[in-house]
Amino acid sequence: MADLRLERDYPVSPEALFAWVSDGTKLLQWWGPEGVHVSEHDLDFSRLGPWYSTMENGEGQRFKVSGHVTHVDPPKSVGFTWAWHDDQDQRGAESHVTFSVTATENGARLVLDHRELADADAAANHEQGWTSSLRKLGTCCT
Q: CA-CA distance, 94 to 83, in Å (whole number)?
């Protein structure tokens, strides 16, 4: 098992940043790495329960991920399970993601913890995807 932790600072209030990482309408504006769009979804991390998103790249490849929102503590944190689906729409190994938001001198800090990934390769792949997504978040929420 491997874990991933990323931290980013944004020049917005903790409440505003929390909205960007929990509200479905706002999530859609930055969810997924650069070069993909969300074609189908039930993204809403403001409530407990199931969620999913299907992302498509420029070549039409589809990537589905789903899970359950496990906790919501506005404006501090939200947690959810995460599992990729295969070509037959079967869920793979499950991991867990937590977005934690804290106040900083100039705005708010987002800490993304993605735990229980299968191995170091999976962690490296997720680091690339999350880093790209967080770049998009930075252009949206500022």
A: 5
